[in-house]
Design brief:
Length: about 425
């Protein structure tokens, strides 16, 4: 269970591969913190439209916005703390960063209108990740929150998130910058090419990568930015500190599919190497195996080849004959899926330190797009009564009864 992890940390970062449930988990954790009495904020990245709507952040800029307590109460959850939510707007975040560091209005305008900058702020690999971390720093610097939950961008390579600050720092490396500031560059391609074949080649590559053909603009960008690089470098140091602070915990969200788990394994290894150990693991969207009658099925497990026995059981239970074949085959398939997931999860768990708490969350029958449905997750992430013990709401989740059972145990069909 993750209650200690959330209680003992100020910053909780939800990481993992694309589509596994990071945004949902981040919102769920922040909501639980608010129920517990924390001043919680969740920074979401591209949340599903309906989730953004239900948090009240669908049409807003990238400022944290307090979720209306009355709205939370209508979901059946009197809140002892507060919940704020915000959505990362990458372009805005870059612009504000520039505005914060620009020495004058003139320089700021010059940068904001620069085509190379416009391209960089949208398309630079890692730009999204960098801005998420930059926003995290801002939230950490504010005294308004004592629980900050960070969602991370959808990425195939989960580690992109942590490497982004280094990449930006390398990109803004003084030596490279100095090179861009060479006077002949501002005069354009022709001069550059004439100066040096290699330089000409490099710039053609740069043009291909960025789509910005005017070399003068690239050069102008760097010259306008030149006074600001120290601030960026200092920032990456702060980021480094926050990500490695004792008050920061990482929660790895993963699905039970083989490929996703392989990525998760790689991810957890690399995090260890980067001295950012995992604080917890959420196995999301797990299919739970049903316990079958041991008298009819060996070991109480339904396996391939048991279709006849399943059909017989269905007929005996009064299921109309026409439905029996497909119900039986569907059930056997489901049991196989659930069994495969259980085995993979056990294997994954065996590779984790015993100290790392892990939880499993079932694949619910609906998406989790509003506050009430987010609380369905609570029973699976947090020990019973943690947020409720002082008179708070009790989740009405239908599946909470078996939520805290070990994944290895099977539940009975209803
Ligand atoms: N346990 C669950 N049961 C059912 N649906 C779920 C569960 N967890 C998440 N979902 C749904 O799965 C979808 C994807 O979840 P989410 O957006 O949180 O993933 P993500 O990891 O943030 O994705 P991305 O990498 O694209 O940002 C959402 O529609 C969400 O409501
Ligand atoms: Mg997401």
């Amino acid at each position: 269970m993750l209650e200690r992890l959330v209680r003992d940390h100020r910053v909780v970062v939800c990481v993992g591969s694309g589509g596994v449930g990071k945004t949902t988990t981040a919102a769920t954790i922040a909501l639980w913190g608010a129920l517990e009495g924390r001043r919680a904020v969740v920074l979401t990245i591209d949340p599903a439209r309906r989730l953004a709507n239900s948090l009240g952040i669908a049409d807003l800029g990238d400022e944290p916005r307090i979720v209306d307590p009355a709205l939370l109460a209508t979901a059946g959850h009197p809140v002892r703390g507060s919940l704020a939510a915000m959505m990362l707007d990458q372009k805005n975040a870059w612009d504000r960063l520039v505005a914060r560091h620009a020495p004058s209005d003139e320089v700021r305008e010059r940068i904001l209108k620069n085509r190379f900058y416009l391209n960089l702020s949208q398309n630079f690999a890692g730009s999204h990740e960098y801005m998420a971390i930059e926003q995290l720093c801002l939230l950490c610097e504010s005294d308004a929150y004592d629980l900050i939950v960070l969602d991370t961008p959808p990425t195939k390579r989960a580690l992109d998130f942590f490497e982004a600050p280094e990449r930006i720092r390398d990109f803004l490396d003084r030596r490279i910058v100095r090179w861009f500031l060479m006077p002949y560059l501002s005069q354009g391609w022709a001069v550059a090419k004439a100066m040096n074949r290699t330089v000409g080649f490099l710039f053609r590559k740069l043009e291909e990568a960025t789509g910005v053909s005017a070399l003068a603009e690239v050069s102008d960008f760097f010259s306008a930015m030149s006074g600001m690089f120290d601030a960026f470098t200092a920032r990456t140091d702060v980021i480094h500190e926050i990500l490695r602070a004792r008050s920061t915990a990482f929660v790895l969200v993963t699905g039970p599919e083989e490929q996703v788990l392989t990525e998760a394994e790689f991810f957890s290894e690399r995090m260890k190497a980067m001295q950012m150990p995992l604080g917890g693991v959420v196995f999301n969207r797990v299919h739970e195996e049903f316990a079958a009658d041991p008298a009819a099925f060996r070991g109480g497990a339904v396996t391939r080849g048991d279709e006849d026995a399943v059909r017989a059981a269905l007929l005996a239970a009064g299921v109309p004959v026409a439905r029996v074949p497909w119900l039986a085959s569907n059930f056997v398939d489901y049991q196989q899926l659930a069994r495969g997931e259980a085995l993979r999860l056990e294997q994954f768990r065996a590779g984790l330190s015993r100290r790392v708490p892990f939880v499993t969350v079932p694949n619910f029958d609906t998406d989790l797009h509003d506050l009430a449905s987010l609380t369905r997750m609570h029973a699976h992430l947090f020990a019973p009564g943690a947020a409720n013990e002082k008179g708070g709401p009790v989740s009405a989740d239908d599946s909470s009864g078996h939520a805290r059972k070990s994944r290895a145990r099977r539940r009975s069909p209803e």
